[in-house]
Design brief:
By secondary structure, the protein is α/β, with parallel strands linked by helices. It has nine helices and eleven strands. Helix content is 32%, strand content 21%. The relative contact order is 0.16.
């Protein structure tokens, strides 16, 4: 994987461009750099763990499964290392072209990183999907770590048999129980990751914490707000595209985005009576976008119907889910 370009605005007060890093003096501890892929089933807390490790929100989070659709990167810069965490869509059995794309992104990422972090739930028994993912991880030639997330939901006696079961599945992997939500044991996980990284200089400026384009981040924030507010059957049928981004001196950034749905019946659900639902989604999204960019924003949202877009290749490409180039690398 190669680093991509980064935006110019301040995200949460931190410049994405930053300044050049000072060279290390002779005799200093070797600096490490590497890409770490988080893989696992849907809804195991991968995005929450990435955000916790980076110390910034770089991936949208929802209790609904299959929230992450594309590869999302979070960059952590320390004195002795720089780590690029790659949050991937949950590996599942796809039911449409979008699902197939998501699984392809996750599987392709395994081939391109320096460390694999297999995330699963500590409060759930080993399942066939875990075994399938473990087989893919085991075939990898890079260091492997298993994070048993949500350890705060179980007692130690319950955890030990699960650790043993995963050790049998992936004998080469180091296993670390964590709670991404509470931060428990995340420091220990970070130390294990650092040990596995290859030596190398930092690839990103010290202030950068993602290499995602600003338009991608904005579209994801809008989608997150819909995940938070809408009933279960609607959010997974939703795609968001930033159509226009206009900046003028002493004016808020003008952003126009289109929300695509698959059925006519879904459009009034998103808009709501008198446009109330769409206004609330837009307000929540705008406040977070302003906080991240550090500037005022005027956000305009439109809702359009594209029947069966999750199975339409041209629409998938338009929304950034290109089957020919999974993950955009």
């Amino acid at each position: 994987m190669e680093p991509n370009g980064i935006g110019k605005h301040n995200l949460n007060g931190k410049s994405l461009n930053g300044a050049e890093e000072n060279p290390k003096p002779e005799g200093a501890t070797p600096h490490k750099f590497g890409f770490v892929a988080l893989v696992g089933r849907p809804n195991v807390g991968k995005s929450t763990l990435v955000n916790r490790l980076v110390g910034q929100k770089v991936a949208i989070v929802s209790e609904k499964p299959q929230t992450t659709r594309n590869r999302v990167t979070g960059i952590l810069t320390l004195d002795d290392s720089q780590i690029v965490f790659v949050d991937t869509p949950g590996i599942h059995r796809p039911r449409h072209r979008l699902g197939k794309y998501m699984v392809t992104v996750a599987q392709k990422t395994l081939e391109e990183v320096d460390v694999i972090l297999f995330v699963t739930r500590a409060d759930k028994a080993l399942c066939p999907e875990d075994e399938e993912i473990a087989e893919k991880v085991r075939r990898s030639k890079v260091p492997q770590i298993i994070a048993l997330n949500m350890m705060d939901l179980v007692e130690t006696p319950t955890l030990l048999p699960l650790i043993d079961a995963f050790h049998r599945l992936c004998p080469e992997a180091e296993i670390v129980p964590v709670s991404a939500l509470r931060g428990t044991n995340v420091d220990r996980l970070l130390e294990v990751i650092k040990r596995c990284l290859p030596e190398g200089p930092a690839h990103y400026p010290p202030g950068a914490f993602t290499d995602q384009p600003e338009q991608f981040i904005v579209a994801e924030i809008i989608r997150e707000k819909m995940l938070e507010r809408l009933r279960d059957e609607v959010p997974h049928s939703v795609g968001v595209r930033v159509e226009e981004w206009r900046e003028e001196e002493e004016k808020p950034i003008y952003i126009r985005a289109t929300i695509y749905v698959e059925k006519e019946s879904q459009k009034p659900i998103i808009i709501g009576r008198g446009g109330k639902e769409l206004k609330e989604i837009g307000k929540a999204a705008r406040l977070e976008i302003e906080f991240l960019l550090g500037v005022g924003v005027y956000l305009e949202l439109w809702v359009k119907v594209r029947k069966g877009w999750r199975n339409d290749e041209s629409t998938l490409r338009m929304l950034g889910y290109d089957q020919r180039n999974p993950g955009g690398s």
